[in-house]
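# step 3/5: fold
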Amino acid sequence: MSARTSNLYAMAGKCADNKTFWSCFFPSLVQMRMCGAKQVHLFKVTELEAPQPGCYWSWWDAEEKRFNHTNSHKAGVEICFPAVMSFYEERGDGLLLPVAITIIEGPIQL
């Protein structure tokens, strides 16, 4: 089976140590504007076979066939759901997966 992928926009943020991280991943520029973004990048979000140091995490929505809730921390995805992730995975709603993010376009001014 080939790796699951989605193209999502995100905006940059700065960590306390001044390193860049990416947040507010959404499929449309309208959603990015609603987050207050002034500049975004378009990313290819790709499923990894196993977690790697520094990887991001994302929820693969089985119905929509795309990634949602992409975050630099696994807990940042888990907090978006009211029950434990295994409940949704066992129900067939989707999967919590480690992902790689790759810039494919940007910066894009909004």
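# step 4/5: annotate
The radius of gyration is 14 Å.
# step 5/5: archive (pending)
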